[in-house]
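Most newcomers find our protein records easier to grasp once they have seen one. Nothing more is needed to start thinking about how sequence determines fold. Here is such a record, shown just as it appears in the course material:
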Amino acid sequence: MLTAPATYLDLSDRTVLISGASGQIGGCIARALAGAGAKIIVHCHNNIVAAEALAQQLLDQGGKALVLCADLSQAGAASELVRAAQKKGFHVDILVNNAARQDVVALEEMTEQEWRTMFDTSLHSAFAMTQAVCSTLIESGKPGAVMNIASIEGLTPAAGHAHYASAKAALLHFTRAAALEYGPHNIRINAVSPGLIDRPGLDKDWPDGVARWNAKAPLGRIGQGDDVAKAVLYLASPMASWVSGTNLVVDGGMLSTSNW
């Protein structure tokens, strides 16, 4: 008997926690996974207005959503976040580590605090959330999946992004290390590395950069949040049941171009 492709993308019995979900990419991921039937925990740090608006949108469309706020750079915050979700009946078995920042600072001008803040937000939060969620999965004996939102800058850095690119490179290696250690517990760990993703006002804020990207990218356009969300949906779903420790690059082919 043939299996319909939609069956492989069914997340109706799963609960997803998305860190940094109040941002544009996080929101797209939340809508995609909710559309596949998953219950969504919308995490935010400070932007509770955007987080609540996203959750209400998911609820209005027949989904199930919960908003939780936490500063994931703080010790114990990740474990407390998972416990708070459990108290509300949301038992996480899929985690999307999406929390990040993307400040532009020249390396020679970068302060130690700026370096540490970047790593706390983009790397430490992923470590802490992965450990907290996987601990509960191991205790319950349930399988799970973790997706780390990295960047092509973890493979090819850009000027002014030494801290960002370094944190994302570390996140990619953390993905493989976590896949190695959590694999025996039937927990899959993967990464998604987006290229340049559009946002409102990007073409006005950085017109030359957008033009250069569009001219050089083999697929001829910058990415959309939904492009990232579709990759995450694939990796979260049963369709990727034997995929772990990999990095799925979503960049319109940019990394295939020549740098010289």
Summary: The mean pLDDT is 94. The two ends are 51 Å apart (CA to CA). The chain has one domain: 11-253. The chain is about 45% helix and 15% strand.
